[in-house]
Design goal:
Blueprint: H1 3-13, H2 22-31, H3 37-41, H4 48-59, H5 64-69, H6 72-80, H7 82-85, H8 87-112
Helix pairs in contact: 1-2, 4-8
Length: 113
């Protein structure tokens, strides 16, 4: 893969991943076959800031933040317990951005490997 394409992808999508993951993502993209490039460019990555806003504005108590990132099981758990009686909601204000980045990494790995 061309280094310029990879660098552009990294610049445009760095906010969707944790900083410690960026090196391995870049290495994997460089080694990747050119035919898979279209798949990587069309990935539907979730914005961690959006998930935090959803969590804070009120969707966190109903599990909407977890449904947004594709974590259906935890979304249902939060919905049925009203956000763990509020405790789970508050904890998620600190964890949801990291969870979103982890889900993005899972999506990336499924598409590249």
């Amino acid at each position: 893969m061309e280094a310029q394409k990879v660098d552009l992808f990294m610049i445009m999508n760095a906010k969707y991943f944790d900083s410690y993951q960026l090196t391995s993502i870049r290495e994997r993209l460089i080694q990747m076959d050119e035919s898979r490039w279209v798949i990587v460019q069309s990935l539907q990555l979730k914005d961690p800031t959006t998930s935090l806003i959803i969590s804070i504005v009120g969707g966190g108590g109903l599990g909407i933040d977890r449904f947004y990132i594709g974590d259906t099981g935890m979304g249902i758990g939060k919905l049925l317990t009203c956000g763990g009686f509020g405790i789970w909601t508050i904890i998620d204000w600190f964890l949801i951005m990291g969870a979103t980045r982890e889900k993005n990494m899972e999506v990336f790995q499924r598409s590249v490997y």
